[in-house]
Structure formats: C-alpha cells, structure tokens
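Friendly challenge for the regulars: who can give me the structure tokens for this chain first? No prize, just bragging rights.
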Amino acid sequence: MKNISLIGVDCASKKRAKTIGLALGWCDGDTVHIKDACAGMKWDDVTEKLSGWIKAAKVALLALDAPLGWPVAFRSNIRCHKAGKPLRHALDDAEKLFYRQTDLEMITSYKKYPLAVGANFIARTAHAALGLLGEVRGKTDESIRLAWTPGAPEKIQAIEVYPAATLIAHFGKGVAKETEQKKLQKVAGKVSLSAAIKEKILYEKDGQDVFDAVLCVLAAADFVKGDVIRPTNRGLAKKEGWIWVKSPQSDAR
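First reply, four minutes later:
Bragging rights claimed.
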C-alpha cells in the first residue's frame, strides 16, 4: 500500500482555518508512516497544501474529520416546516431527528457520542468541509468522490472519519483519560512519526489539530485494509454520510 497516499484532515470552519490539521502518510503492512503534518495555516494555504499532495499522488484517500451529510429525518422535517408548528418527530425521538445512522452506530459500538450535525455548531464545520472538498476538486481537476467500498481507493477518493472513535477502537476506552504524552506513545506504536512531528503534537499550540489529523490517517489505513464498520443500510448511508472506523475488538470496548 506504499503507492496509496493517505491524507488526514482535521476539519474546522473557514473562520477557524488555523485550527485545521493536515497529515500525509502511507501504510506499510501494520505500520502507518507519517511523511508530513501541519496546522496553523490560512484557508487558502490549506487548500493549496491539500491540492499539492493530491497532484503528487497517483492514488489517494482523503479522510476528513467532519460530517459530510445531514440526517434524512432532519432534512425531511425541516423542508416543509413552518414557524410554531410541531415537527413530525416527537421530542422523545430527538435522537432520530438530529443523529444519523452512523452517529447511532458510534454510540452502540464505542459509547462515543459524536456532535449531532443537525443540532450543534458542528454544522458549520460540515459546511466548511464540503466547501473545502469543492475547492480542492477545482484546483486539482479531480472528481474526488466518496468511497463506499473498503479497500484500495479508485484514484482520488474521500471518506468521513472520527479521530476520537479511532483512538478508542485501537487503544480502548481508557485511552481518553490518558495524558497527551501517553496517548502519543500508544499511537507511536502503530504510527511512525518523526521527532519533529512529535514535538509539534506535544508542544505547539495547534498540536491537538496535528494529532487528530494523524489519527485521520490511521482511520484511512483501516479503511484501505477493509477493517472497518460497514453500514447496514448502504442507501441511507449514501444520503447521510458514514463514519468509517475500525471494527470493534474485544480489547477496544
């Protein structure tokens, strides 16, 4: 898989572009190698950096930490809603309204609650991520379609990932309570990082953004290996988006 570029994007809104983290790597057997990782750039610099990586790659998988779709129930309710009128979903069904199928899967598999794209500020990040994809498509002349079949991507494709769930999937629920240094030590057992990138993660103010981008690359490697949770309703997933995360293991619960 050395010929497949894995690109992690820790997304943020356009106004908070300096908190966007980027990481470039590849997978060699069970080890993920990170070639470059950065954060703290302006929006235009982010799109240029991503476009440059994509142009240099023959085959690449972009893994974005942002929802790439909205809940079907939310969309259908809002489309014809009028102010003051009740929604078709009762209040006790709010999860069905604001969470996607994939969000509910994260809760079931890893007891991890993603921010609901239909209800939280994360919608701004989703909006920006889709815009980012659009700009990069224009700069590279690549269609960059979403990948729906785990395995090697077809030329340049993209997926949605969730770094927090990927961290738990690989290292167990207890990892969330670890210090940043211990988290990094665990990740470094599976991800090859240069000393410079480790220093960025631990000591620079945008280190968490870089770390999340690295986890996005790890999630991309899981997808390429085919070791991911797959949607039970593929048609619905294609409308709402799907978080690709490593399949649950006994030591990751």
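The longest helix spans residues 122-140. The first strand starts at residue 4 and ends at 10. Your move, everyone else.
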